[in-house]
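Can anyone check this?
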Amino acid sequence: MPKVLVADKINEKGVEVLEGSAEVVNDPTITPEDLLKTIDQYEGIIVRSRTKVTREVIENAKNLKIIARAGVGVDNIDVEAATEHGILVVNAPQSTSITVAEHAMGLMLSLSRKIAIADASVKSGKWEKSKFMGMELRNKTLGVIGMGRIGSQVVKRSKAFEMDVIVYDPYITEETAKELGVEITTLDDLIQKADVMTIHVPLTPETKGLISKEQLAKMKDNAIILNCARGGIINEEDLYEALKERPELKAGLDVFENEPLEDSPLTTLDNVVLTPHIAASTKEAQRDAAIIVAKEVKQVISGETPSNVLNMPLVDSETFQALKPYFKLTEQLGKVLVQTSSQNISELNIVYSGEINGRSKEPLTRELLKAFLNPILSEPVNSVNAKSVAKQRGIKITEGETEDSGRYDATIKATAKYDNKETTIEGIVENNIPKIISIDGYDVNLILEGLMAMIKYVDVPGTIGTIGNVLGNHRINIGEMQVGRESAGGEAVMVLKVDQEITPEAITDLEGIEEIEVVKSIKL
């Protein structure tokens, strides 16, 4: 019977799932030294956050087929090493969706009815009934920023309170919104209309400081803002000033830029409810996470395919070796495409050519989708669910082959279509290094790494110099420049490698140049 190590304390229901199909060794206090010595005995290992599954551990795991994290994050697992050794990594992203959504609803109710401060008042011996006039949620407008698993669950619950729902999510289609019974709007419109605003997006360079002084000033005086996603999305200094100046404005926070929260002026205010990052902490969530990953382990040791794979689907070794050089390219193409495309993407088209044709390219497509979708969703997208998540978002995926790869061994071309427009990025692998060779049909030759920018402009004298001057004024140094064009005086594309991140202020100044059509900052 295969052996499975439970290296951290998990709910007993998870262990029960495995009994009968595996010999379960429950050792939640195992030391790193003992793990290294014994890992070769096991076909599966289940961990939470305590145990670190390092590259060294993985290299000693001669029989390991699956590493399961009973939770969402996998920071304690070397996923790259696991992939190299053909070991599946799974987690339980769906286990916390309802738990976090319920916590958001709890904060919403606590603030709308002033429950937290009323509780503190009664416990201090007071009876200040008139001080705690509340607000009904019925017929109020809920603004949801981010419509992934958690955002959708919040919407479902808010409907029971008879709330109207508007959402801001650049990657949700009108058809999907109609099915969910919500109205798509802009971020600015949502901020101004919402009686309650709740955030469910990941922390990325684009979402850091998404809600700052300017946005807070546009909120209704008696509105509520909630954040159960990630700290840093709301500028906490600006939030404190807004709450202090406008006592009817209210906030509920479960996450903070620096945790644990220390010496924050937010703790001095009555119109804010703060919780210590516990939105995902319920007995049910821990139970569900244990059961989910135990079922995944059971499937793998029984020769079946699990559902929540974080690295890639299983393929035969020959196909894997042929595709291996192109995994990094597809990942980078996905990252570039999501940062250079506009909102409301309706279709992704991927065309392969050259030596990788004639094989299953499913793992490559899923790798591109995973890299494309992860920055825009608060829940992790993995290799197995990437296509179904794209379908749920209303994004049509098409794949194709062409024999013509030009002078290259193979090329991969990815096109995002949106609002009757499209963005196309084509790449190659040269000496094991991923490169861009064209953007929207304009030839370039650039290694995909670091900080970059893509600028579309009209190629007239002086434009390149003006771009350089603007970046120089913002103390941004250009390390490398590639320009592609069809003819002098026509449209051209410039790709820059820069030493400093291009700031929103620099982008605004560049977009103010008459000859410039589009400016996109890229971070790889």
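Reply from J.R.: I decoded it. The first strand starts at residue 3 and ends at 6.
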